[in-house]
Amino acid sequence: DEGSNTEISDDDPVDSNLKYIFKYQIEGSDSEFVIAYGTTNVSEAFILPLGTEENDWIINIIVRIEDKYGMYALETMPVEVTVSDDASDESILTVVSDQMNSLTMYVDGYNSQEVTQLALAISSVITYQKDNEGDDDLTTNRTEFRSSIIDSLSNTCDWALENDAVLQAASALSVVTSESTELTSDSEISAVTGLSTLSAKLLDYDSDELMIDFIEEAAENMFVTLGNLWSSSASRSSGSNSDEDDDENTDYSGTSVISQSGSDLLETMGGLLSSKSVIGQPALESSSAGLSYSLRTTTLTEMPVLSDPGQLGEVTLPDASVIAGSSIGVDDSIRSELFSSAYNSFPVGNVSAQYKMSSTVTLTLRNGNTNSALEVSNLAEPILIVIKHIADLDVEDYVIEPDYNSTELSYHEIEFDLDGAGVHIELTPHSDTVNYTIYYRQAFEPTTTAYDFMSSEPLITETSSFDDTLQTFTFFIPSNYTSAGIGYVGIKPGGDGIHVNYTLSLLASSCKYWSPDDELWMTDGCQVGEWSNLTHTLCYCDHLTSFLSDILVPPNTIHFSELEFDLTDNWAVFVTCMIMLAVYILFLIWARHRDKRDVIDWGVCPLSDNTSTDKYMYVVSVFTGMRTGAGTKSKVRFVITGELGETRIRVMEDGKREIMKRGTVNHFLLTTSRVLGQLNYIRVWHNNSGQKDQASWFLDKILIEDLQSNKKYYFMNGRWLAVELDDGRIERLIPVAGTEEICKFGNLFHTKARKDLTDGHLWFSVLMRPTRSNFTRMQRVSCCMSLLAITMITSAMFYQQDEGESFKVSLGPLVFSSRQIIISVESAILAFPLNFFIMELFRRSREKKSKTEPTLTQGPDHERTDFNIGDDDFSELLNLSPSSPRKQSRVGKHTRLKTVEKNKKKSRCNLKELPHFCVYIAWVLALLVISTSLAFVIMYSMEWGSDKSNEWLVGMLFSTSQSIFLIQPIKVIIMALFVSLVLKKPEEDVASGTKDGAALEKDEEYLHDPNKRSSQYSTTQEGPLRDKKLEQARTLRLKEVKMEDILKELLYYVLYILLICVVGFGNRDMNSYYITSNVENTYLSTQFYVRIETGYAGYWEWLEDVALPGLFPTEDYRGEDLSSDYQNFMSDLTSYKYATPVLRQFRINTDSCVPESDFKELIDQCHASYSYLGSDDGYYTDSWASLNLTDDEILEITPWVYQSALNSLALPMTGQRATYYGGGYIAELGTNYTEASLVVSELKEKNWLDQRTRAVVLDEMTFNPNVNLFTSMKIMVEFMATGAATSYVSVQTLKLFRANYGSAMFLTVSEVLLAAIICYFTIREIMKIVKTKKKYFKEGWNSMELLLQSMGIISIVFYGLRQTACTILQDKLENNVTVSFDTALLWDELFVIMLALMIYVGTLKFLKMLRFNRRIAMVESTLRYATPQILAFLTMFMIIFLGFVIASVSIFGHTLGVYSDVMSSVEECLSMLLGRFSYDDLVSVSRILGPAFFFTYVVTCYMVL
């Protein structure tokens, strides 16, 4: 590249006074940065900055060689600067620390170039480390490094004595400050100080010696740095301002320094740049880092509209005479400096956080001769400033159901923080016949006689953005009518508008200028223009300074006091809330009853065979599993063996309550006559005395606690004690579990999951409340209700806003959208904190303390009774009753106990517990949340109206189901996995039957009478069942189980088949047959259709005389012309043409086949049958003249241009002779009979059908509103290679919209139930396969069951694909987009076919259900016995039958169509066996072979076989 043309003296040597400047440029970027300069062609060694990974680490080294005349040459060298593969955060940190020390040395040595070079390199390294680290732990180090680098560069600015040094320092600062998030207030001040120093250096130079290119490059680097600093400072200021309470205390000193220094820098650099500008020269412009400028020199008369290249702002000055004055004339030279920033470059001060900030626009006018700034203020005509909004505005539309019963106006409230805000109101009535008048009044609600502003003429009237049939009116309230505080907008409809809803949106904007004296944003002398919008604010001001705009999108506040509770139509939400309250009260009653019962069930039961002489005590806690049928009513016995002895046979029984129920933990007090020592194992069994499934027992584990030594022993079982399950044993010998066994994954996961499911899962714990929990069922029910209520109100708050664009899926009359799913997730998240707080108050509140200490009394005389059992007080034994705050039922004698403490330390107060009064706080909060939430939900529903309320209820279904079945179960599983895999530590078993220092509470009573204890134990003990009795019991139980399984399976399959039939028949409308019949009668049952088989001429004749009159009727049956309302209907006047009818042609290539060599001289071409590889997809003009164009060059789609399947949205279609893939040559017939006739005539005239045509399809889609069915009609005519033609008709119907009446709801519920049952049976079969493995497939019925469930899963997939396709169709139909129904029809057909197969296979399964019937069993056994003979017969029959089939094809195939191919011949021969045949046709072919074939076939198949 060369510089300007300058004359060079011949006496000067070429290589004298050369200057070398080295710059670098990141690959892919336009910015260049100076790294070295000098007068020698060899530079000192320096460290290069890193490249970027996305550009393969390449940086371009640019060398500029410049002579004293300004001529220069450029050389570019690409260099790869990368990071080593083994570099880590620690190694990078070490390297950077070492280099920082070097940087300090260079600063101390005043080596400015070395400082700049090293600063650029270090900055690139820490930027790379920030972009690639996994966390942000090193942010502090990077911030400190960056601050030190900026301080070093700021120091070098004082040493910049050359132009190149200024440029080098400015470019380095722009790079180092690019990471604005890592800049501190001190580093910002240091950087701006350096910029000020550099600008001052430039002022000291002779401006005549400064070249414009140098000034522009230096200014651009300085402005980039300034933009980075403003971005960092603005984000810090806005962060401080986000807390409105701290606005007055926020320190803006740092921001003020940057603002003032930045303003001075703009003034300095603007002056230098504009000094190089002359009248008539193009403006000097640049835009980078959110800062744009435009500088020009002109006169006031010729001053254009001023705008910056970043399009952040625009200024239009009034007439020149308005600005001209004593200091300047209209024709004098004037310099304009327009700066626009994407950031608020001034302290935010009084800018409210709720306002959306705009760009900042600053315009300065200077005298072109003196360069002094002109004072522009108090102008007679305003200056127009257009300011772009930086923040994205999301103006929310509110659908309003106004109430005009009490007033003529509907009111909306707006809150302003500042004076002078203009308000735009967009009003869309849901009717095209309503006009409105708006009223505004500050602080008070306006009336038709008292208001501050009124307008009945909208500023803009345009088509609504969400409904092109409606009009949107835009009104504007000028800013001089508004002030800080509350304002009210009143809307009055005209005509019948009181019955019309409307959609409303509000936008308030204000114009502000920066006052340097007050250091505040002011609004004096500025007005908001009425043509302001969402993207720009128009300000009219009478002075010049820095401007910005505040934009507020105010929320729409409804006066709930004016809502009318009309339940005539809008009753769904109200009734739902009332039902919820009723169910809540019923559950509270039930929960209170269960809480009382829990206290009884959870108590410690002394074993009935304990004796008074026994001294040593153990608490035995028995954990019954959670599996179905895990509980038992059989009598359980056990023997415990220790190192020092074993117990006798002991029995677990309780005459007061039911024990060993599913999922329960039962505690028993065992006393022994001596110490057992270290326990080794326990032998446990039952007598199998329970009835049916109540005899079996799933024992999870047993926990035994030695009360004397406080040792606990775990005995892990996890198996059945049942004759029909597991190994069929009802006795287990369980060894004591060691630490390794207790900490196994399975045990830890099961224990943690069980605990969290019964206690942590809020909903499930209501039914499965764990033992020893202060969190009662009543409290849990209330928390469930409060959670549901909070979710409802948060969902309603989100749902009040319009949904906008969202993906919707229809499931019968229910419509689910992506917006509903998002709202349900948001509601669940927002509802959690408050409800969690209420739950924790309930859970952690301490039990109520007794004011008086109870004493042991008995009977009405309250006499003290002591029960001595050796050295220990028996009262301590009974002290093991649970300390629940719920009062027990009085059972047996009323015995109260004073706790006896013997050498026990007092238990420490649990630091996690809260005072008891917190329970009352929790109850108040729960009831307040429930009542207020439901009340507001009802009011929201009254505001929405019926349709929106019903849709909201569907969204609530998602929120509730997510909470119950998704969020909390996932939480349980994650926590269980964490404990099992990470912690690997068993939790303290909260279900233990003991409690340190436990005492009987004042509201508790003993369930068992301590007086009824035997002094000796029974000598008759029942051991385990013997093998003979056990086998008898097993045989009997297996028979019972088998019969129960058969009955259950029969019941399930009856329901299964009924649901399949309901869903199958429900998805096939009976009207489909009549629609198909109507199509056939209209288009096929004519003499013209028969003549189609004669070839092209017959097809054109049928098309003109039958198809077109049927598609485009012009007369009714009376011969009178049809009105325009019926022009879009078919000839039956009931089927509406949804899409334009088209003709689709499939062709073959010219080289699809080659004539035989013997005939090439006679025939030069031939045309084969249709195939995908031989199909034609070329482009032609009229009459199939070749057109050599590519896809991109095709400008117009004609019947002679091939359209791919992707463009035509058509699926492949199968005819009688071939399968024709989507696409083809498509001719649209138009919208009326005249257009269609012209199209057909032109195609016929230009030979659209010729020898290469293999199929033509007449394709039409109609909708019959009478029966709610879409119909796809495809009439295909195939032109075979033989010259003959054959036809094929496909008529498919689809119910795209499902009505909202009862039968549709029933069908939807049936579909959901069927899907659930299919999933259940599939999971059951998978579990069977896992359990039985290969044995599963040896049973024939299992294979049929697996086939049935596989088809069920496939049908669910097809159903989902069909619903998705239908949803897409509905959305496009609503947007008036023409689409193909082929995809939806395909999935619908496959779904129904799969249902039909399921019905067939499921019906066959009934034979399995009836296999115990004697006759069915006889048939089954007979078939099994005769299978070899049957197979042999079938083999012989198939050989003879296929022989006759092949013979029939050979003899009659050339004449009779029913024998033209093998499959047709098979069908005809089978029909002949059934007695349906045409003997005359056979004779007509051959009078000898025909009868011979017939009689031979009949005799052989009927008589011999």
Mean pLDDT: 76
How many helices does DSSP assign? 32
**β content, as a range?**
15-25%
Show unreliable segments: 1-10, 240-253, 555-561, 802-806, 811-816, 850-911, 990-1005
| Class inferred from helices and paired strands | alpha+beta
The helical percent reads: 25-40%
Rg of Cα set: 46 Å
Distance linking N and C termini: 101 Å
Structure description:
The radius of gyration is 46 Å and the shape is globular. Residues 1-10, 240-253, 555-561, 802-806, 811-816, 850-911 and 990-1005 have low confidence and may be disordered. With 1505 residues, the chain is of the alpha+beta class. The protein is built from 32 helices and 52 strands. Helix content is 39%, strand content 20%. Strands 5, 6, 9, 10, 11, 13, 15, 18, 19, 21, 22 and 25 form a 12-stranded antiparallel beta sheet that branches. 34% of the residues are buried. Helix 6 (212-241) runs antiparallel to helix 7 and helix 29 runs antiparallel to helix 32.
Secondary structure layout plus pairing:
Layout: E1 19-26, E2 33-38, E3 58-66, E4 72-80, H1 89-108, H2 112-132, H3 139-156, H4 163-176, H5 185-204, H6 212-241, H7 253-275, E5 284-288, E6 291-299, E7 306-307, E8 313-316, H8 320-323, E9 333-341, E10 356-357, E11 360-367, E12 383-388, E13 398-400, E14 410-416, E15 421-429, E16 436-442, E17 453-455, E18 460-463, E19 471-477, E20 485-493, E21 502-515, E22 520-522, E23 526-528, E24 536-541, E25 546-552, H9 572-601, E26 604-606, E27 616-624, E28 636-642, E29 645-646, E30 650-652, E31 665-672, E32 679-686, E33 697-706, E34 711-721, E35 731-735, H10 739-742, H11 745-760, H12 764-767, H13 777-799, E36 808-811, E37 814-817, H14 818-844, E38 857-858, E39 868-869, E40 872-873, H15 874-878, E41 895-896, H16 918-944, H17 946-983, H18 1027-1066, H19 1071-1083, H20 1087-1090, H21 1096-1111, E42 1136-1137, E43 1142-1147, E44 1180-1181, E45 1185-1186, E46 1202-1203, H22 1205-1208, E47 1213-1214, E48 1219-1220, E49 1224-1228, H23 1233-1245, E50 1253-1264, E51 1269-1279, E52 1285-1294, H24 1302-1332, H25 1335-1338, H26 1340-1374, H27 1382-1404, H28 1406-1409, ...
Parallel strand pairs: 26-31
Antiparallel strand pairs: 1-2, 1-3, 3-4, 5-6, 6-9, 7-8, 8-12, 9-11, 10-25, 11-25, 12-24, 13-21, 14-20, 15-19, 15-21, 16-17, 16-20, 18-19, 21-22, 21-25, 23-24, 27-31, 27-33, 28-29, 28-30, 28-32, 32-35, 33-34, 36-37, 38-41, 39-40, 42-50, 43-49, 43-50, 44-45, 46-49, 47-48, 50-51, 51-52
Helix pairs in contact: 1-2, 1-3, 2-3, 2-4, 3-4, 3-5, 4-5, 4-6, 5-6, 5-7, 6-7, 9-13, 11-17, 13-14, 13-16, 13-17, 14-16, 14-17, 16-17, 18-24, 18-27, 21-23, 24-26, 26-27, 29-30, 29-32, 31-32
